[in-house]
Each structure stands twice: as C-alpha cells, then as structure tokens.
Amino acid sequence: MIERDLDVMKNADYMIDMGPGGGDAGGTIVAAGTPEDIMASEQSITEKYLKTERG
C-alpha cells in the first residue's frame, strides 16, 4: 500500500520506505521499521515529512 497520510504513517506499527524516488527512481528499500526508525534514516525522504509533522 502506498500511504501519504502523515497521521496514518506516524501511528503505524511498521513501515517500509521505498525509494530513493518514485517511478523508475524507486524500488529499493531505503528504511524499514517503526516511524522512529524511519525518522532516524538519513536515506529516507519520508523521514523529513515525519519530522516536520511531529514538530
């Protein structure tokens, strides 16, 4: 499932972040784990959005 709702993502038990971009630039797991694990990943673009959402 592709999810873009930050509230759903920050409350997830486990996430797999694919990237590093969309389409042809994607397809690699750049981060996996809890939202906190994703926010700790320097390779994840999603981590920037989660950090912004949480303040």
From TrEMBL:
Keyword annotations from UniProtKB, A to Z: ATP-binding, Cytoplasm, DNA damage, DNA excision, DNA repair, DNA-binding, Excision nuclease, Nucleotide-binding, Repeat
Gene3D superfamilies listed in its UniProt record: P-loop containing nucleotide triphosphate hydrolases (3.40.50.300)
Localisation: Cytoplasm
Superkingdom field: Bacteria
Main location: cytoplasm
Family: Belongs to the ABC transporter superfamily. UvrA family.
Protein name: UvrABC system protein A
Species annotation: Dorea amylophila
